[in-house]
Amino acid sequence: MNDLKFAFRQLLKNPGFTAVAVLTLALGIGATTAIFSVVYGVLINPYPYAHPELIWAPGVQNAKNQQIMRPFRKDEFDPMAALPAFSDLMGTSPAGALLTGEFAAENVTAARLTQNAFQFLGVSPVLGRTFGPGDFSASGEPQPVTVISFKLWQRLFGGDPKALGRTLRLDDQVYTIVGVMPSRFGWWTSDGVWLPMSSTPGDPGRLFPIGRLKPGLDSSVARQQLQSLEIELAKSNPDGFPKETFEATLTNYLDITAASGEMQRALHMLLGAVAFLLLIACANIANLQLARATGRTKEMAIRLAIGAGRGRLVRQLLTESVLLSGLGGALGLAFSVALTRLIVALMPDFYVPNEARIEVNGPVLLFSVAIALVAGVVFGLVPALQATRPNLAGALKDERAATGPVRGGVLRSTLIVAEMALSVVLLISAGLTMRSFLALQNVDPGFRPENAVTADVMLPKNRYMTLDQRNRFAQELLERIEHVPGVLAANIGNGGMPFGGAQSGYSIDGQAGPDAKPLTLNLVSPGYLKTLGIALRRGRMLDLDDIRRGDRLTVINEAAAKLWPAGEDPIGRQIHLDLLKGSFGPVLMPTNGAPDLTVVGICADTRNNGLASESLPSAFVPFTVAAPPGRTLAVRSHGDPAALFNVIRGEVRAMDPLLPVSNTTTLGRTMSEQTAQPRFTMALFSLFAAVGLALATVGLFSVLSYLVTRRTREIGVRMALGAQRGDVLRLVLKDGGRLAGLGIVIGVVASLGVARFVGSQVDLFHVNPLDPVSFVTVIVLLGLVALAACWFPAHRAASVNPTEALRSE
Amino acid sequence: MSNESLIRLEGITKVFFTDELETHALDGIHLDIRRGEYMSIAGPSGCGKSTLLSILGLLDTPTGGTYTLNNQPVANLDFAARARIRNKEIGFIFQSFNLIGDLTVFENVELPLTYRGMSAPDRKAAAMGALERVGMGHRTKHYPSQLSGGQQQRVAVARALGGKPSILLADEPTGNLDSKNGDAVMALLRELHKEGATICMVTHDPRFARSADRQVHLFDGRVVEESAGEAVASGH
Questions:
Q1: Is residue A755 within 8 Å of residue A769, measured between CB atoms?
Q2: DSSP SS3 for A254
């Protein structure tokens, strides 16, 4: 208690030191806590479900691809549920539903769930109940009841508890609301509804099964059981499984988050970056503590002289350090709350699971306290050990050599070198992510995103049942939009606006593609190239007559043109697209259509598989040859494209008042989403690197300032002996330059390894991990900053008055 | 004063090594300090007075020779053991007082007792007793900077006395004081001696050196003369 009281008194006595130390620690601990809160919310504890570590998703893997989660036929569900490895199995069948009735029409996600789903997931409703046996008939037919999400409850009913018992009209069927789930519950949707799934025998539907392993059971045992089952299922359902050899997979649900993959790796890298930052902060405080310890040499000597054991003094000094880190941690926690908000704002939504909550909660708080304690010990121990072994006799008699070495000099120098080296590593890593981002930003996508928008229109299957109905709707909507003043061009169809598209197997002259890779099939209207701003290289674009007739014609991109043998002209040749063989699922096609199309033109390549990927071979065909229920509209205008959204909504409403328009966005925003993840990584890396650089610079500055103060008498002697001011300036600059130079060299060497590691974790776009530009820029930048940090103490040393210096203590 | 030996030094040497240079600070010191004795060590600057006092106070270790305190060899003890003995057996009075500026008068006196693990009530009683003894009981809440030099030295004496050590080691206790305050501190030491305290004092002031029972004169790290002090010589 006395130690604590004395520690408080010490900190209050040195407000400048305390403020600098607390701020430095707050930066280090705050940044670490903020990144940990993201990692905790997104990767460690993304789900509110009971024991998510026991939840596993069955899948299939073969040489071509891996389906971590895949739909199985409903009649395959029961045999899977009967596997001894599973203590429980639930199924989900996701779908969209058109919400109409008393609410404005909109498409909502409607996930159908097996009866046991909510019990399986272990989350209770905030209002009402979940599904029970009473919601299913004896034959397995579900009752028209629904459990709704918290967000939908707030949005449609303003959170009114009387929503229970009210009804929702979904796809023209009325469902009674029986429950509302908590805000964190987001199974397949966090803004939709859950409906009971039919389990009648012979139901041809499909579902995604999710199993809960028996506690203590090794997943490899479960996988073997699943493998045996899937081999049996493939015998009775050969089309449902890969033709080649395949393996059953089981993936833990904690590994299936929206943040899996690149974001997960980026977060781990950022956690490493803030650990570096924290180390720099600790090194800084350790240096300050060492300087303070020198000033307290006599105090320590007195304490030792009157019988204090060394351990006792170390304990006292560590109490001061831990108190300091506690204060830094408290301020850091406040800082982390703000930084967490900033990170969440920067973080692309689609990388955050529905259920995740990124916040400074109990576990994050514990983490923060733990790192504050560890930091306190880390930066306090070495200075404490050093401070408690003074030259007792000398210290008690106020002896100090006029020109002797400064105690702890090696340790102080080591800390500064380490800070500089860590800073170099951070800066080079940040530089690589920045160069990668800029390279991605400067990619020519092959289309022009400015002044263009896209919007989705989903046609209800029960009201738009025929190919002709769907095509007539699309054609009329297109004509209406094209006649809107200010519209330059419009396109309706599916895929390629600007990314994606259906994947189809193909063959040319009866020969399948050489590497069996699929080709991207896009349904388009005549205005596609103009709307997207894509150049036509040769031949012609599909015209209105081609579209109206649904002619079997296609325009291909340059990547697809290369599928023909070199020297052969694809124009006029035929390509066979497997996907156009006939209707499948909800996609309607003419009964008399042939899957062979004649190439009439070649257009420029676009980055149709994402900005960072090479162009995929694509075929553009009349949208009238296939009609899925949903269509995408792309429109290019003269002015502000966002103004088009209401126009599109108005035109759709004029054609069908019950049709909602969804996913309205600009092409600019779609492009921006492509760079969202690299931008996020780059921004945070750069922020942490900048803070690290600032801390290292302050560290170098304070150590040199301290050395100059300690060497004032020596400098006085030197000047008395004839040294010029320039000599003194060079003396200090040389000291600082040596430390900074050594730090930079060590940092660069370390970065050679770290940069390769960063390159293996973060997708660096067109940037070599050993990118010389990044390395040289950082070396020059750090050199200049170090020079500035050295200059002021050096200038002060050169301004020493020798007479006063020789008198100084 | 009893005839029982409290401290015995036999052939104590101390050599400092700096940049290939050997400095023999102490060169075969033999010294006995009896319980209850008041001894002064005198000599010119650089003769080894302070080095000898540092070794006596276990602040430093000798290069050679034996040192027994209370019949226990202590020359080669480790740092922790020496700290424990300093805490229990030795009280220091320094020329520059060496009070801790961040602690109050009471806390300064209490500090060695804290290190001893004494309970708070016992510490308070002992510290207050020592402060009353040196006439500083009314300044317990003051900080050293609020006291005069003489008062600070009296607090330092109280700190040395608080733990009832076997011996008080005083290193030029009047060196930073004016003559009036210096005389007062010397008077205090004499009173303590009369009450039974063993005192070993380093001083270069012959007047104060003579006030001890015995004077030891050092020159070039050797004891060159031992003589009785004025009190002994005059039969007091």
A1: yes
A2: helix
Residues with Cβ within 8 Å of residue A668, at least 6 apart in sequence: A449, A450, A452, A641
Any alpha helices (H) in A611-764, and if so which ranges?
644-655, 667-674, 676-710, 712-720, 725-761
Q: Which of A297, A300, A306, A314 to mutate to test the interface with B (most CBs of B within 10 A)?
A: A306
Q: How many helices (H) and strands (E) does chain A have?
A: 23, 25
d(CA A688, CA A276): 9
- B57 and A298 in contact by Cβ < 8 A? no
- Checking if the pLDDT of A403 tops 50, the result is no
Provide the phi-psi class of B11: left if phi over 0, else alpha when psi is between -120 and 50, else beta. left
Q: Which amino acid is at A257?
A: T
* Model confidence, pTM: 0.78
Which chain A positions have a beta carbon within 8 Å of B111's beta carbon? Answer: 303, 306, 308
In chain A, what percentage of residues exceed pLDDT 90?
55
Secondary element (H or E) of residue A293: helix A262-295
Strands (E), A568-617: 574-577, 596-603
In this structure, what token pair is assigned to residue A462?
A: 């029960």
How far apart are the C-alpha atoms of A616 and A560, rounded to whole Å?
Answer: 8
Q: Is the model's pLDDT at A777 over the cut of 50?
A: yes
Residue found by looking up tokens 């540092």 in the block:
B54
Q: Which residue of B has its CA nearest to A302?
A: B98
Where in A63-201 does DSSP place strands (E)?
66-67, 72-73, 86-100, 106-113, 127-128, 145-148, 167-170, 173-180, 193-196
Residue A518's φ and ψ, nearest 5 degrees, are -75, 165
Q: Which tokens hold the place of A41?
A: 């919310």
- Provide the chain B residues 176-215 that lie in CB contact (below 8 A) with chain A: none
Take residue A605 and report the two structure tokens written for it. Answer: 């390549």
Confidence bin at A401 (pLDDT 50/70/90): very low
Average predicted confidence (pLDDT) for chain B:
88
Gap between the Cα atoms of A125 and A178, Å rounded: 10
Q: Do B102 and A299 touch (CB under 8 A)?
A: yes
d(CA A277, CA A279): 5
- Interchain CB distance below 8 Å, B112 and A397: no
| Matching residue, tokens 């600009």 | A666
ipTM for the complex?
0.71
CB A205 within 8 A of CB A198: yes
Helix (H), strand (E) counts: chain B: 8, 10
Please, what sign has the CA dihedral across residues A426, A349, A268, A773?
Answer: negative
